[in-house]
Amino acid sequence: MAAFEALFRDFGPRIRAYLLKLTRDRQAAEDLMQETMLAIWRKAGQFDPARGQASAWIFTIARNIWIDAWRKQKRPTFDHDDPALVPDPEPDAPERMVLSQSGAALHEALKTLPPEQVELIRLSFFDDASHSTIAAQTGLPIGTVKSRIRLAFGRLRTALEEFK
Fold it and tell me: Where is the RNA polymerase sigma-70 region domain (predicted)?
């Protein structure tokens, strides 16, 4: 106990000052200093004087304890009521009907397009392929892919307006 008291008297204020510089919070520095001193006491048998000075070992323990506390503090808490985490409500009957009719209208509008434009729309929007990937797959120049998709959109827009 006398050795711990001497160690505490000698290193306690220095560790507190070091942790205060890191945390900028007196109470946190005091708590971390006490935690550091307990860790030093528990790990005293692990100290090897051949590997360096005792002060370097002690301040390494203090720094590691501060890092652990900082990581715990910075970890976001999980809020079950966060609107971003709540799934969208299921559509009610009128919304489902509108979605179903919109889907049916889109299918009918796609039937009005030439097959090569339907294929480009499918690759781009349903398979999520980039224009360059589509160009490589189809053997078409990238400019042709872009212009055909743009043309297909114009035709789809016209066809969907007719279904309204």
Answer: 7-75
Q: In this structure, are residues 117 and 148 in contact, taking their beta carbons and an 8 Å threshold?
A: yes
Residue in 130, 125, 121, 123 with CA at minimum distance from that of residue 154: 121
Q: Which of 43, 164, 41, 2 is nearest to 98 (CA)?
A: 164
- In the chain, which residue ranges form alpha helices assigned H by DSSP? 2-23, 26-42, 54-74, 93-111, 115-121, 131-138, 142-163
Per CATH, the number for 105-163 is 1.10.10.10
pLDDT digits (tens, 9 = 90+) for 101-131: 788 888 888 888 899 999 999 999 889 999 9
pTM: predicted TM-score of the whole model, two decimal places: 0.44
126-142 burial: b if 16+ Cβ within 10 Å, else e: eeebebeebbeeeebee
Condensed to tens digits (0 to 9), the pLDDT of residues 27-70 reads 999 999 999 999 998 988 888 889 889 899 999 999 999 999 98
Contacts for 51 with CB less than 8 Å, ≥ 6 apart: 57
Count CB atoms within 10 A of the CB of residue 123.
19
